[in-house]
């Protein structure tokens, strides 16, 4: 009889434990969903960069062994681009890829603020679920960026400098953006331009610190306004075989780079605001 009672007690303890765990899960879910400070966050716990780097697969150093500079090309055919650059991780700047685009003249801080106004007005905006990179600024969201004062937005003397980036998740905004630019002419015919647009914008002297991305595909970035210095370094395992170098991407040029393999930093070197837009391709 004593053994039966012990078995019943253990069973009841297990049931109580399961109930408590389920209740705790419900409370945690409710907290994450209803608490405003967490609903708009991309992740509750961020994975440290050091841990991400430790889990990266080793890189084949043939991607950089014979690369000592960034090529500048014009009038390159899709086949030539595919053979030499598209999937080899060899960086390149295309100098004539925006000849028919209206984005270089249409895009500005005020223009972007205007097309996002409706999207960001909603408390549960789809854009809040997209990625936002504050870099070294005090902004916590794209909404806060477009709420900055006019002097700072216009980069007037004495105003605090800034540099941010974000991915666009709003389909309506995507249509407005893409009315001013098209698929880069040099991409391989069977390549698909990914649906997510990436935009980076900021003032002179600012940019992104040295890092490597965690993305699936190479990408292109179009320098619509301003000029940006890109500093490239090979992966750590290739430091004794490959060179580090830099390139300034001028307005009207597109840089193509596998940011998942090349470590890179950027710095705006023009007095004008820098605005770039880009996407991954497969």
TrEMBL record:
The chain crosses the membrane at residues 15-35. Residues 78-237 form the Cupin-like domain. Keywords: Membrane, Transmembrane, Transmembrane helix. GO terms for molecular function: 2-oxoglutarate-dependent dioxygenase activity. SUPFAM superfamilies: Clavaminate synthase-like (SSF51197). Pfam families: Cupin_8. The keyword Lipid biosynthesis does not apply. This is Uncharacterized protein LOC117644667. The lineage of its organism: Eukaryota, Metazoa, Ecdysozoa, Arthropoda, Hexapoda. The gene is LOC117644667.
């Amino acid at each position: 009889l004593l053994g039966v009672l012990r078995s019943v007690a253990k069973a009841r303890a297990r049931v109580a434990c399961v109930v408590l765990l389920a209740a705790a899960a419900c409370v945690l879910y409710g907290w994450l969903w209803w608490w405003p400070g967490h609903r708009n966050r991309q992740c509750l716990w961020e994975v440290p960069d050091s841990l991400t780097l430790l889990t990266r697969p080793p890189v084949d150093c043939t991607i950089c062994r014979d690369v000592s500079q960034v090529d500048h090309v014009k009038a390159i055919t899709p086949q030539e681009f595919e053979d030499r650059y598209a999937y080899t991780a060899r960086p390149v700047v295309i100098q004539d890829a925006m000849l028919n685009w209206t984005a270089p003249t249409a895009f500005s801080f005020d223009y972007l603020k205007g097309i996002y106004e409706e999207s960001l007005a909603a408390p549960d905006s789809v854009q809040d679920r997209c990625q936002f990179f504050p870099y070294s600024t005090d902004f916590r969201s794209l909404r806060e960026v477009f709420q900055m004062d006019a002097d700072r937005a216009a980069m007037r003397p004495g105003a605090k400098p800034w540099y941010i980036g974000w991915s666009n998740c709003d389909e309506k905004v995507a249509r407005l953006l893409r009315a001013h630019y098209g698929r880069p002419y040099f991409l391989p015919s069977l390549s698909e331009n990914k649906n997510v647009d990436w935009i980076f914008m900021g003032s002179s002297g600012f940019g992104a610190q040295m890092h490597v991305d965690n993305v699936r595909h190479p990408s292109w970035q179009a320098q619509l306004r301003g000029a940006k210095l890109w500093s490239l370094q090979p992966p750590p395992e290739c430091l004794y075989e490959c060179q580090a170098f830099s390139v300034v991407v001028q307005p009207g040029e597109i840089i193509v780079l596998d940011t998942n393999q090349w470590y890179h930093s950027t710095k705006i070197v023009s007095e004008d605001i820098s605005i770039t837009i880009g996407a991954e391709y497969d």
